[in-house]
């Protein structure tokens, strides 16, 4: 499936973006916006992200940086998992740092590209 066709599955979806690196967050938000996504965020910290989760009745998917200004994202993942929201992790850490409950979540190690993150999310949301 081509990149553009793959992203079509995201059209009219609501995606939470949580990333504390401004340029990367902006690039992800731009790619999602161009695919017709309603972008929640980007949030740069756990508090803002949890506020966005509480504020919205539904969220179709989430792209989450694992470490936000020194805070690990685990409480946010828990809040999303309770609502069955698909999550893609973005991290500079290797797999050993990811706790067992989150070890099976799709993960990209930086420096992967914003397009890589978005395409993984699109694949997760494509009906089989």
Automatic annotation (TrEMBL):
Domain (Response regulatory): residue spans on this chain: 14-125
SUPFAM superfamilies named in the record: CheY-like
Residues modified as 4-aspartylphosphate: 65
Keywords noted in UniProt: Phosphoprotein
Domain of life assignment: Bacteria
Keyword Electron transport: no
Pfam families in the record: Response_reg
The protein, known as: Response regulator
